[in-house]
Amino acid sequence: MKFEEFKAGVYRQQYQYKDFLPAKINHAWSWNDPRINVLLEKATKSLGELNAFTLIVPDVDLFIHMHIVKEANTSSRIEGTKTEMDEVLLDEKEIRPERRDDWHEVQNYVRATNTAIEELKTLPLSLRLLRQTHAILMEGVRGKRKTPGEFRRSQNWIGGASLADAVFIPPHHNDLPELLGDLELFWHNENIQVPHLIRIALSHYQFETIHPFLDGNGRIGRLLITLYLVSHGLLAKPSLYLSAHFEKHRTDYYDALSRVREANDLGHWCRFFLQAVIETAENGKETFQYILSLRQDMDRKVVTLGRRAENARKLIMHLYSNPAVSVNMVMKLQNINKNPARDLIAALVDIGVLEEITGYRRNRIFVFKQYLDIFMEKNDL
User: Is residue 379's pLDDT more than 60?
Assistant: First the structure.
C-alpha cells in the first residue's frame, strides 16, 4: 500500500462514545515522497555510525547503562515524573519522601529495559516480551492496580477526565487480539520489502493508537523502538533512545501521531520519526566522543595519584556505570576500611574527578560531575 492511499481507520459508535479502529499494517508499503527516501538514507547512515561506536568503545556496557538510565528518566518525565538524573543514581533512602514515587517509576523502567534486552539474546521481539516488560515497569508504583503485564480488558482513553471529554479513544478491547496479532506479524514478516526504520515508525504509531495497556503505553511504546532495533540487528547495544527528542518536540510528536488518524498523513509521521532518529543518533555519536575524550583525561589524572592510582582507576570504572558514590559504597566496592575510602574520595576530589553534592557533613554523596554532565546536557538538547 502507498502512504498516499492509506486510510488510517474509522470511528465507531460505542455506548455513549466513539472509539477509533485503526487499519492493519502487516503488508507491503511504498511512497511517492522523495523526502522520505532522503531521510531514510540519512537515518540509516547515522544509525550505522552510532552502532559502530558501540562496537569499538572499550567497556561499552558501562556507558550503555547510563544511556538506559537517561532514557528511563526522560521517558518517565514525559509521563509526568519529576526525578532528575542525579537523583536517579542515588539509593532510595537518599531520596526525599515526596519524590520517592517518581524515583521508583524510573528504577522500574531501568530494570524493565535491562530485563527485556537480556531476553532478546534468546527470544525474538514479541507481545509476550512486551507484557513481561510492562509487568516490571508497573510493579509497585502508580498504576500497579491497572493489570500490570496484561493487555486491557476494558476501554481506556487519552486526555480528559472521562470518555465523555477524552481527546482520543483507542479501539475497543475486543479488537485488541486481532490488531496486536497483526502488529506482531509485521515485525517479522519476511515476505514484504519494507525497511526496518519504516517498520518501526509504523509500529510505534500503531502501538500508540491501539494503546493496549491500561497504563504505561507511552513508555512501552518508546521502548519498543529500541527493542526492535536490537532484535533485528540494527543495533548491537541499546544505544538509541528517542524520548529526549520526543520530549523536546512534545507538541510536534503528539500532533504527528494525531495527524495520521485525523488526516491519513502517514508520510508526515514517518518524516518526523526519521528526523528524530537522525538527530538522536548524531547526538549519541557526540556522547561517545565526549566519553572517549573524558576517559583519556581521567587516565592522565589518575597517574598522578601514585600508590592510590590503581584503586582510583577501579573506582572510576565503576563511576562510568554509576557516577555517584558515598564513602560506604567505596568501602564495599573496594573492600577497604573507612579511612582509606575517605582518602581515596578526597584524592579524586582534589584532582577534579569527584564533587560533593549534598553539602552535609555526614552521609555525603560525591558525583563524577564531568561525566554526568554529558548525559544531563544531552537531555536538554
Answer: no
The architecture in CATH of the region 304-379 reads: Orthogonal Bundle (1.10)
Q: What is the reported pLDDT for 377?
A: 54
Determine contact, residues 327/341, Cβ cutoff 8 Å: yes
Enter the pTM of the model: 0.94
Q: What is residue 158's DSSP assignment?
A: B
Domain ranges of the chain: 3-286, 304-379
Distances in Å between the Cα of 164 and the Cα atoms of 15, 17, 153, 167, 168 are 11, 7, 19, 9, 10
CA distances to 84, 326, 363, 380 from 360, rounded to whole Å, are: 20, 12, 7, 28
DSSP for residue 59:
T
Residue 246 vs residues 64, 75, 106, 285: alpha-carbon distances, Å: 20, 9, 17, 18
Domain pair 3-286 / 304-379, same fold: no
Give domain 3-286's CATH superfamily: Fido-like domain (1.10.3290.10)
DSSP string, 342-371: HHHHHHHHHTTS-EE-S--SSS--EE-HHH
- Residue-averaged pLDDT of the chain: 94
The lowest-confidence range among 30-44, 63-77, 136-150, 335-349 is 136-150
Tell which residue, 272, 241, 267, has the closest CA to residue 254.
272
Q: Give pairs for 156-162: CB < 8 Å, separation 24+.
A: 156/211, 156/214, 158/211
